[in-house]
## 1
Amino acid sequence: MCGAELKPLPEGVQRVAALLQAKGHPHAPVMLDEAARTAQQAADALGVVLGQIAKSIVFRRKGGAAGEGEPAQETAVLVITSGDLRVDEQKVEALVGKLGRADADFVKARTGFAIGGVSPIGHREPALLLIDRELFRFDDIWAAAGHPHGVFRLRPQDLPHLTGGAPVVDVTVSRTA
């Protein structure tokens, strides 16, 4: 034994693992030896094609519901898409309203995860989630598990169940463009 197997999982990965277990998901998170902060790094570490990585892209939705006399809240919008595709911000805006960039502090505050480890589940605050239909090109995909070294295996059709019913939509730049 090298002792690594005795290390506790990072807090974010523990949160994701507990949710996966509670929902009866058959695959627990695994910790990679190398960081997988990008979809390409994750694909290389797992030996899968880039499109099989379910990358989480976070935007900041401008405005939103606010109480009487309170400023409008900015909401996190999480788009889960294939690692080989780019998100079309205009398509996302057509679905959820005006978007802005989400910096690292906003992402961490809203999701509870650092950029490079944002999981599709287990967020600190409720987020507006969208699942890109292009993930359904694959039988198996991999998503971040709350840490740059943590990932978990799933099927695209597991995402709506795991995320509490997030819709499957077309939000990527056309591959023919």
## 2
Amino acid sequence: MLGYLAFEITALNDFCNAVKARGLSLVRVFGTARFAITAGMLSGWVLGYAASFLPPIIPPVHFAVAVIAIVVTVTSTLVFTEKEVFAVHGVADERILQENPVRSATETADFVENLESFGKTWGMSKREMEVLDLLLKGRNTQYISTQLFIAPGTTKTHIYNIYRKMGIHTKMELLDLFDTFCFDRIS
């Protein structure tokens, strides 16, 4: 019983991580998980009941182990295809990138100086400057929210205000405007 409970807790923890990392529906994921766990228990009961009708020469334990081995092999090849294995690997890589941001050439002194000058030119607030810094580094709304400990809606409001002040509508326009600004400062 303890082994089963440890498995279920571990599986549900993995589902929580998948929901968080991929933005999936919590109700759908846990509903599917609960269905799979219940179906597994029901299958075990049916297998135990079927084993009671075996001839005396076949031990029920050997029968159960043989059936379970076949079911696990078939299920694992159908469920855990190469696509799903690589998807899980991708989630792990994504999580590592979120936890350990990559230090890049954009964090040089020139970038910081250009960013500060760029922000002052457009009259950005302190918080807008923090959001602008991450936007220019190519980060998305969810990442910015996590890094700055603010709600995604607040992040979107800051992005909207930044775009409004600059008279632009997209991140591409922001990047182009910043590149032009940096080029003009060099010239």
## 3
Amino acid sequence: MELKPVRSVLYMPASNAKAIAKARILDCDAVILDLEDAVGPDEKVDARIRALEAVREGGFGHRQVVVRVNGLDTPWGREDMEAIAASAVAPNAVLAPKISTAGDVHAYDALMASLPPATQLWIMIETARSIFTLPAIADAAQETRLAAFVMGTNDLCKETNARLVAGRAALVPQLCMAVTAAKMAGLAIIDGVYNELQNAAGLEAECRQALEFGFDGKTLIHPNQIDIANSVFSPTEAEIGFAKAVIEAFEKPENASAGVLKVDGKMVELLHLEQCRRLMAVARSLTR
């Protein structure tokens, strides 16, 4: 399956036509047209109409277009899903909020039955209960179109009364558990937002932490955050060079049965070969 980069995933309020138009020219990997948190109750219906019009009009180029719907326990969630299902052009993905159980995944998936198979289901991991049901939620991907976890770190902190400070110590266990569950099921996983718009150093540090934990990218709330996220989550020239060297070493006929090799002064095993192949696949996906 082709790898689609999700280094930078930008939330845009679907109620804001100017923001949607601007998203078509920004260098993010994906745009989330948000019908949920970014839209007030009185604007929900108009935002839904505007989001689906934007999807039909297209023009987003390489960017994946994702629509975040309202929860099915709200007055708008089911109508959001029905409108998307009835639309002539589907988004690349639907993002479902506040998923707590595998049953929640199946509920959204059932409402996507008429959509093209390529339309994915992304889900928000942002409730306290979801952390304790992560394996079952991830396993739901075997029977649904679930393709990605998106962390809702602000909501997690709200539910647990944790403090979202530099280093995110209170969230480290939850973040690592979510990454492990996602990778277990072969899903992409995207980190939560960084709230300090003028703190570039803080954003970079949090992106690097997420990269170290195993995240594939970060959700963003402002265009000025895109370049940092793209830079941090892109393989470096040194990483690409080493990956090529490892792959070439294992491909040599004399190493056909080797399980361990020495490359550039480092011991590498077959598991490192798999990691290097994945890194090269990611690097190739960024060539556009």
